[in-house]
Amino acid sequence: MLRKDFIFSKERLEALTDGVFAIIMTILVFNVSVPELILFAEGEYATERLSSRLSDLWPDIISYIVSFVTLSVYWVAHHRIFHWIVNVDRPMIWMNISFLMTIGLIPFSTVLLAKYSDQQISIFIYSSNAILAGVIIYFIYYYAKGHLELVDKTVHSLIKNRSGRRILITILTYSVTISFSFIYLPASLFLFLIVLLPEFIPDRYFGKDKQLQSDG
Question: Which of the two residues, 209 and 143, has the higher pLDDT score?
């Protein structure tokens, strides 16, 4: 029997989450500005100047790619967890809202990373933002693990396996990036991209059992 604090269906929470992710992922591209040239002043050299200006955009483009990948990974993680959740209660609702609030800071930390990519503090803030989001989404997973009434009764094996490892590996990736930024700062930007690697690893390496394989 469901408690009275099951006040929202999971569909509304998923719709809110998808909407927030869609807005944030769209906003990211606004951080990449189109270069402006004064043709009267630069004349026939406008083409060369435009090429030079475009090449100066690489920090913005790299930051955009990294942030889009980060958001994509967390959206997939959220979708993977909520695929098996059938009900939500107040604690889960507020954990999810806290997750969205943290995700909402990604555009800010992205601009900071793009403008100050040569500063260790910008990498620390961006990575910390991503780590905090990862910790919250893991708490959502762990909360569902301890409250089986929230989960589809036919897929309890999901709670018993080690699917949370994907989230933990993502958190670890950003932690390593922070550590590596103290050793060789430029490479830290490219290390962000390895956050995608867990998404290409088959589920069986994360402890997915046979029942889940047959369900999926």
Answer: 143
